[in-house]
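Support request, please re-run this one:
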Amino acid sequence: MNSENELKNDDMCPEYDFSEGVRGKYYEAYQKSKNIVVLDPDVAAIFPDSAAVNEALRLLAKIAKSVKA
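Re-run finished. Output below.
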C-alpha cells in the first residue's frame, strides 16, 4: 500500500484540526500507568492540585453510597 492509497482510505474527516495538538503530551504519565483526566478550566480553577480532586471525589463517593443505602 502506498501513501496515496493510505490517505484515500483514511477515516479522518477534513474538519479535524490537530494544529494546536502537542505530540507526546501525556506520554510519560501513560507509561507510568496513571489515569489521566483533563479537567475543564472552570473545574480546574476550583482544585489547586490532585490531592484536592481526590479528596472531593472520595467525599462524593461516600455521600453517594450513603444515599444509595
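The longest helix spans residues 50-68. The radius of gyration is 20 Å.
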